[in-house]
């Protein structure tokens, strides 16, 4: 440590001497206007700026004329480089910087060289936080009330950042900055993510001149099927065992800043660096897993971990000395001492891999920071490092999961099954893993709740550090002012001395809704009152309103790990009240003591909600993923392809879920046979593939890596063949959800494989996937760009060695008959609280809890959660397999 400090001190002294020497030298005059090297700083009220007036002279003869070049636009003098770092799914106490046990030296470095912010907030979910981060506006204001994959047809929820809300990338780029974005992009509408575009909602269309990252909420870090450079899909991992995106994107960012420095050393850069860590899947390298495992950080369990973190936080001064540790939710999550030996073994492994992912990502971030120092540009670089875009994720379910795709399809493997099949490969390319909910709660210490929950700080409080050596002199200082992610953009603009434009591309801009945090950079303002006095929060009907040290919060009625739950109408949610001036962690509800204050804040919430496009409130979660939305396949039932095509994302690909369908492939098989992919969607962790294997036609359904159903025919002769796969679905389809009934989805069916009109294989599927395929994989024809649907059959890219003349797909989605509608309406009425198609109300699209007439809405919601857990336990006790267990639970819940 002393050597490092000596080096930094020597480096700082060298910079000081160099700057002094430069100041004593004669300064070169600025190039005159019209010369090739001329520059200009624009007013910035209109972007792009109007064309510059020609200041030369034009005669008939060039010898009598004077050239005049338009000046190159540059930012104001002294504008800093900006490195904006945001990690994923990491709560307040994940990093060592904020009391956690996981080493994060890069974040520590920024905090020690700058300021540590202890009262900074997100929106509790990925896309919404990131939309607010790049626009300076509330997430509903820019169409991201929820993640892009849950978009609905309302302005606050359609996942479209409208043209009157230019991003920080666009503003800085037009003012002369180099701009780039590395890592996660969760701010392109799901239905605009294909190669058909449009590309105006991609990073390169939002002002970022260079983009290297993945499209969507998460990706396989070993084999990211949704990785792009600018707007072109790329697959750099093919043929490179051990390749990992976390390292690759750091390499890309380092190369970018060095390239810009070499080409244009006087032009500042703005880099958004957003690794997939630590969103599931948790994919660190084996070296990092060993490093963390050898530290034995989690052997004593999650309850002891909370106590340790709480002590660390008080010692570091990142929570007040009088802060209270919120109680452990004994009614929801087991205490560590209640666990079996097998549970402890599995859950410790899950935490080790998660922590290794945290430390690995921070180390790679440290390399990017060091590269800026190595260029001699750290002093005038504003670094904003936000640990997490929401609280730690509890979407891993009570047991954790080896496959996050399974979780979203309501399948949760037992501890015994996970130990047997996945323990040794946890975190490798053979898993799409997530950890148990107990760890998520512990990593949000000292607060309650987790990701998805906006009403309590476990979902929204993020550790953040900011450094800018040339400006921030109170190194190692702590700032406690309330701030929000919408405050980042105005902070950057003030630092760069650039104002928000009034017009961009001729469109009048809506006001930025955040406030600058630059006042906190001055040590004199260390204890100044916050300039951000009011902030609403809303996510899937859970909500809160902060105002001047008070926060009114709705009671959490749906734990984040329960993705399907019958809930009361949003207007019936009970409220809580907290006096944050004396209760920093929301430990004591004082609503009963302050009824007038609660009413005042409730009224303020509705005022803010109307102002920022929050209505209509919607409590549904997973069902929104299959809500119809615009796409290239919307409204179509027939598709035809005549040549290879890869990379169509789920949002634009035809969906086979909860429907009957028919594939016909007209192929030529060459002499000597053929093999390769015909058509596929999804991959190792959930999807289907229709392919030729050693000249035999095969159709495989991968049911989230827990079961595979396979149809196979005889070897094909050379020549032309028509290969067909026909599937007849047994369920009523997604239409039943309008009545709060889930029995129409995820049902079974019968698949038939034919060759030249002759049936060669018939197989019954007892159950199908109800909600989603593997989301980081694409719909591909003639090769497979991601992971295989069956590793035992082939490895990607598995290009077809024959010729596809024509591929057709016909989809037949079930339609409810009048009798079906009547029966569903009667069942909804019998439930006492379920919607019906003729009651004039909007259906919640969640399954009903029948037999609960006479209970309050809140009690019914609680009973719905309890019943599902009881059904799961019954299924486990019967020793049912994964698919049979899912079917049992769905039937049980309806009884």
Structure summary:
By secondary structure, the protein is of the alpha+beta class.
Characterize the structure shown.
Pfam families: Sulfatase. InterPro entries: Alkaline_phosphatase_core_sf, Sulfatase, Sulfatase_CS, Sulfatase_N. Keywords: Calcium, Hydrolase, Metal-binding, Signal. This is Arylsulfatase. Belongs to the sulfatase family. With 895 residues, the protein is of the alpha+beta class. The strands form six sheets. Strands 4, 5, 6, 7, 8, 9, 10, 11, 12, 13 and 14 form an eleven-stranded mixed β-sheet that branches. The chain has a six-stranded antiparallel β-sheet with strand order 21-32-23-28-29-30, with no helix packed on it. Strands 22-31-24-25-26-27 form a six-stranded antiparallel β-sheet, with no helix packed on it. The radius of gyration is 28 Å and the shape is globular. The chain is 24% helix and 20% strand. The protein is built from 16 helices and 32 strands.
Which key terms come to mind for this protein?
hydrolase, globular, disordered N terminus, 16 helices, eleven-stranded mixed sheet, 24% helix, alpha+beta, Arylsulfatase, Sulfatase_N
